[in-house]
């Protein structure tokens, strides 16, 4: 084989390998792009929801009091109550939301309202006993004077195979 033919074959081989790598890279990028892109406003609310879980773990009732609307309601496995009771429960540690591992999030914004669904594993101390529970938590927010306020939060017990449809 001549030196020219060898170089042509080498160049052809390099082009072939480069095209395969490019095609593979494009396929990976396409599959990692979510079908439903998250807007900046949706991301802001998702971050607010995530911060809320940390404030609950830290028992930071001052930040939570600002986030929770005065007429907000909370639905738990053991009952339903309003803002003041929820804040008191967190402050006194009757329920200590130690950690919320967030597995999945979906969000919809409709006008000045936002609904966030979190599938979580919650580690909590409830009346002195540790509990680890799978939940889907539904949070309803309303934008008031350019701030998002939590109107409602409902804990639904689910199996770990539960999937939030987006």
TrEMBL record:
Keywords: Signal. It comes from Albibacterium bauzanense. The keyword Signal applies. This is Uncharacterized protein DUF4440. The lineage of its organism: Bacteria, Pseudomonadati, Bacteroidota, Sphingobacteriia, Sphingobacteriales. The keyword Signal applies. InterPro entries: DUF4440, NTF2-like_dom_sf. Residues 1-23 form the signal peptide. It comes from the Bacteria. Transmembrane segments: none annotated. Residues 45-150 form the DUF4440 domain.
């Amino acid at each position: 084989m001549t030196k020219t033919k060898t170089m042509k074959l080498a160049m052809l081989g390099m082009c072939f390998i480069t095209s395969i790598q490019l095609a593979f890279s494009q396929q990976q990028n396409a599959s990692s792009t979510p079908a439903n892109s998250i807007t900046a406003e949706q991301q802001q609310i998702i971050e607010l929801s995530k911060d809320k879980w940390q404030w609950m773990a830290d028992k930071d009732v001052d930040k939570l009091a600002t986030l929770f609307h005065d007429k907000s309601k909370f639905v738990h496995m053991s009952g339903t109550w309003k803002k003041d009771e929820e804040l008191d429960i967190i402050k006194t540690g009757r329920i200590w939301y130690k950690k919320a591992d967030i597995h999945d999030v979906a969000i919809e914004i409709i006008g000045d309202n936002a609904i966030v669904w979190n599938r979580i594993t919650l580690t909590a101390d409830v009346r002195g006993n540790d509990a680890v529970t799978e939940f889907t938590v539904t949070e309803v927010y309303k934008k008031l004077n350019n701030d998002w306020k939590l109107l409602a939060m409902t804990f639904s017990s689910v199996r770990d195979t539960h999937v939030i449809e987006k």
